[in-house]
């Protein structure tokens, strides 16, 4: 690298050269630093940062995303406030998140605690819990559509076996959203378990031993020692699962396409419809900005809350 | 002898529930059509290979798999190279604007993809990349997460390592590639596995950036196939198995890195 040649200290005595060698070295550092970082930074800037600003601009335009847009002022936001479908989708999204996040967390922690024990076959159990993580949403959607098939599905066979009537699941407007919740909990459980396992494995063994020497039972030492220590993991999962829940799209697209009777049309699905079915790109961008705002507010609130509640430092 | 733990009573049924969808997919993929349409459903009597042959024959599954492979491999290589370079720079070189660039880059991690995708589509259209594999590769060639991950691990390496190499006259680039990166194989493997999984399973961006069957990824193709063939479930399941085979292989062989990477992505 030429930058390195310049960076080599001169043999000239320091006193005579003044501060020049230092400056040259710094200049070389700037050049080398940008040389190394530029490819990634430019790519991420162009494809990750510029579109955020652009999206905001789009939300003040009438555009079909193909031909140049025209200035729309606040039209798109006015439409958003007055659009009953938007509010429907918003409520549905919140219902989904309010089910998906707590259910995933409530299942993941006890499972992680069990998988943290030294028992035979624990490797197999860990594998079984985490394999849905690598299964694509499309594959998951196809599998669950078939499992929950009203006519031939395995789930209905199980219901039938215990004398319950067959259910429609994805094809029943009253059940579709819950079927999506079940499917996404299956898909995300492994992620939450792995995060909790990592946190539990970081809990120092001597702390548990100390508490048991002090007369703590297994349950009490879990409640008073381990649970507070995995609080940062809970905080992280809460934020992460909520962010992903608010962005729910793939799982809906591959199972119900927002139906039946809009029963699973969540915010991002509404956005997709507006952009690529109704070709109202400006309005879609406005919905996107609204989703972004909700996510941003939630994330910041949660981070602040976490900072206040985690008293313990986990290495 | 240790008494078998009572936890098995919970963990075993749980594991069965977790793997049932996958096992059921495998079973249906080797059933005949008639066997798949029974109630209550049962096990297949033999192995109906015809489903797999039909899946490969009747849809461009081969080229979909090929497209996914090209996109994933190029993105993995791009991320390994570009994120290593940038991660090293942010960890070790003090250069003007590095703090601002790093913070802005991290900020993109908070941005939901839905807000990026509309302008991204316009960009790809003006670059002439819409409906080509380039549209799927370009935005994923370097990721903020990758740079962050690499930077974190570079900061944990002792500085003496590279100082020794630099005193011996090696350039920064050479030090990076011959001294530091060989020490970071686990981290590189982590980044490779995560990038591969993400690009292989990606759905929303290919859905809007690509239309022609010839340039579809396997996820997209599978989805279009699902819409068109709602009657032949065994064939659809066979295609699904084939679409998940590469990631399942990666998962089983790189499980160590995978678990580590998920934990790193989360806790770090």
UniProtKB/TrEMBL annotation, chain A:
- Main localization is membrane
Pfam families to which the protein is assigned, alphabetical:
BPD_transp_1 (PF00528)
Provide the residue span(s) of the region labelled Disordered: 1-23
Q: Which residue range or ranges hold the ABC transmembrane type-1 domain?
A: 90-304
What's its membrane topology? Multi-pass membrane protein
Q: Where are the transmembrane segments?
A: 34-57, 94-115, 127-148, 176-200, 221-243, 281-301
The record's InterPro entries line, in alphabetical order, gives:
ABC_transporter_permease (IPR051393), MetI-like (IPR000515), MetI-like_sf (IPR035906)
Subcellular location(s) per record: Cell membrane
Could you tell me which Gene3D superfamilies the record lists for this protein? MetI-like
Q: Which UniProt keywords apply?
A: Cell membrane, Membrane, Sugar transport, Transmembrane, Transmembrane helix, Transport
Family recorded in the similarity comment:
Belongs to the binding-protein-dependent transport system permease family.
Q: What is this protein called?
A: Sugar transporter
Can you name the source organism?
Lentzea cavernae
**Taxonomic lineage per UniProt?**
Bacteria, Bacillati, Actinomycetota, Actinomycetes, Pseudonocardiales
Automatic annotation (TrEMBL), chain B:
What does the UniProt entry say about where the protein is found? Answer: Cell membrane
For this protein, the record's InterPro entries field holds: MetI-like (IPR000515), MetI-like_sf (IPR035906)
Residues passing through the membrane, by range: 7-30, 69-90, 102-122, 134-154, 175-197, 241-259
Q: Which domain of life is it from?
A: Bacteria
Q: How does it sit in the membrane?
A: Multi-pass membrane protein
Query: ABC transmembrane type-1 domain spans which residues?
Result: 65-254
Protein keywords: Cell membrane, Membrane, Transmembrane, Transmembrane helix, Transport
Q: What PANTHER family would the database entry show?
A: ABC TRANSPORTER PERMEASE PROTEIN MG189-RELATED, ABC TRANSPORTER PERMEASE PROTEIN MG189-RELATED-RELATED
Which family, according to the similarity comment? Answer: Belongs to the binding-protein-dependent transport system permease family.
> What protein does this entry describe?
ABC transporter permease
Tell me which species this is from.
Answer: Lentzea cavernae
